[in-house]
Every structure is written in C-alpha cells, then in structure tokens.
Amino acid sequence: MSSNPGFRSFLLLSFLLLLSIVAEVQARGKIFNVVAYGARGDGRTNNTKAFCNAWYHACQSTKPNMVFIPFGIFLVGPIVLSGPCKGPINFFLHGDLVAPTDQASSSIDHWISFQYIDRLTINGGGTFDGQGASAWPNNTCRTLPISVRLDFVTNSEIHHVTSLNSKNFHFNIYACKNIIIHNIHIVAPGDSPNTDGIHLAESNDIQILNSVIGTGDDCISIGPGSKNINVSSIQCGPGHGISIGSLGFTPNEDNVYGVHVTNCSMTNTMNGVRIKTWAKPYRSTVSHITFDHINLNSVANPIIIDQQYCPSKRCKPGASGVKITKVKFSNIQGTAATQMAVTLNCSASNPCQKIEMRDINIGYYGVGGAASSCCSNAYGACYGQQHPPSCLR
Fold first, then answer.
1. Which domains does the chain have, with CATH numbers?
2. Among residues 110, 170, 199, 240, which one is catalytic?
3. Is 94 assigned a catalytic role?
4. Above 50 in pLDDT, residue 153?
5. pTM exceeds 0.85, yes or no
6. What per-residue string of b and e applies to 46-85 under the rule 16 or more CB within 10 Å gives b?
C-alpha cells in the first residue's frame, strides 16, 4: 500500500463512505450482491447472467435497493439493465467491470445499457474497463460498442466511477432528463478513435460537473435536441475539447438551446470550445450558448465555429442550414498551439448572429507572429480585452 498520507486518507474516506451507504441501504432496502447470484470476480468468468438476475430482483422491489459489485474483476456483457423499476436503484460498482473482446460482442452498439429507469444511481469508486485497444484498429470497419448507455433515464446520478479505454463513446446519454454526472474520471489515449467522453442527445436538464476527462475525441459532445445543459469544472485533455455538435447531418434534428460551459480547462487538446455543423441544408437552431471562464494550455483551435465540418474531407461543398445565434465567449484565456486562435467559419446561407466576444486573451508564441482570428459570415459585438483582435462584423 502507498505510504502517501493523502492516499491512505482517501482510502479510509472511501471505505467509510462505502460502509455508510451500505448501512443506509440495509436500513431502507436490500442489497443484491452479484456474487450471491453466481458472479465470480476472477476476470475470466462471464457474469452476464448473474448480473441480469441480481438486477431483475432489485428492480422488482419498491424499496431503494442496491445491486452491489464487490471488489474484484468481473467480465460482463453486452448487457441491458432495463426498467421500469418499482423503486430507486443503486448500481454500486466497487470492483472493476471488464468488457469482452470477441468480435461478436464488439459488433453490438452497447456494452452496458441502462434503459427506462427513474432514480438510478451509478457510483462506488470502481471502473468500467472497455478494453478498447482490442477493437480500435477496426473502428473504420464497423460501429463499436459504447461503454455505458443511458436511454430514457430520469432523475438520476452518476458519480465516483472511472471509465477506461472505451471501444467507442465512454458514456452516451440519450432521451434522458434531470441527470447529474459529477466526480468521474474518463481515460483513453489521445489517439484512440471516436472515444468521446460524454455524448448527449435529445436530453434536457443535464449537469456535468467536477470531472477529469482525457480521451481521443471530444471530452464532451452535445448533440441534437440537447436543452438546458450545464458543464462546469471539467479538466479536459487530451482530446478534442468541448463541442456542440456535430449538427445538421440529418433532416428534422431538434434544436440545441441553453448550453452553459463554465470554469473548464483544456490542456493539449485539438480544440477548446467548439460548435460544429455539417455543410448540409437541413435546418435547426443553436441558441443561448455560453462559454465562460475557460483556461487554455497549448490548444490547437481555442475558439472555433465550423459550419463546414467534414472529418473525412470527402463532403460535397455547400452551406449549412443550421442557424447559430446568441453565443457568448467570455473570459477565455491561455495559450494556443497554432497561430489561428479564433476561427468563426459560419454559414453563407445562415450567418451567425449575436455572437459576443468578451475579455478574450489567447497568446501564441510560435513562428509566424502573434495569435490571429478569422471570421466568415459572423456578426456580433466584442467587449473588453480582445487578443487576438476581434474579426466580428
């Protein structure tokens, strides 16, 4: 065991927290230990059936029950843990879950999926290990599993867990409402493909707080239909930054409204804060967006709106039908890894309107001169310090 006093204190606090939570559940409900259903934490036994059985029995009780995964390494999945449940349910991951690596399992769109549940809690200090290195070479050939999916989940919380080396996205939040995600750790190499940390779509009233995310794609990506999203105190890097989008790829996408990203830091990321849309005619709106108090450390594209998004570079030229309006970039400071610190490349048919730049201070210290900005079809106003000089019309 480490001789570090802080580490010993953390272990003690974690143990005391575990005891208090277990005691509370015992007083109010029941603990369903997966080991009692035949699970073995040896890293080899397939425990999918045991997990399903433990979940089923916990889900049938009206009390706030716990599915308990003790210390150990549990091979499980792909698995769907579905509701509705009769009462609140706590998926308490104290040990580590590892994903299968066979080709059949890697062809399914999920590893662990929670569906149609109200008052779900996922916590416990353990790890979801997606074993992504086994599948990343095949990323261009097929869709790979998302590590943890939440579909149609409400009034729920995820905290104090780690997601390691997902094959695809780490967490996918779809059609959910009133979800709080905080104090989580997401880890994958900077060159791992498509390993977004947290992806949202068609969800509202979502909070993502006080977490550390380092991955190979967007630390957080906010997709169509996202409304009232609060992102705060996120440490991002490596990765592609915090992005709204990509949007406008298909017809009839829902609007994005009310996204607030505050007090976040980006270190050695491809992008800082970004809005990205495809150059397609499909119409939707992005509005009431705030990026505030963002710290940058060697970020390639610190502030970027890209309405010609095309990662494959094989897209047909065109103008995006997505309307971007009422976006605030304020108190953004730090260093850029490239000279172009601010890029606002908006749609020719749907120019960006009511863009606000306030107190921007981004330095570049490489060859070619000071940091610069570039705008196309972008209209708005600037206030306070502007470094590089604003290019808004």
1. 1-196 (2.160.20.10), 218-393 (2.160.20.10)
2. 240
3. no
4. yes
5. yes
6. ebbebbbbbbeebbebeebbbbbbbebbbbbbbbebbbeb
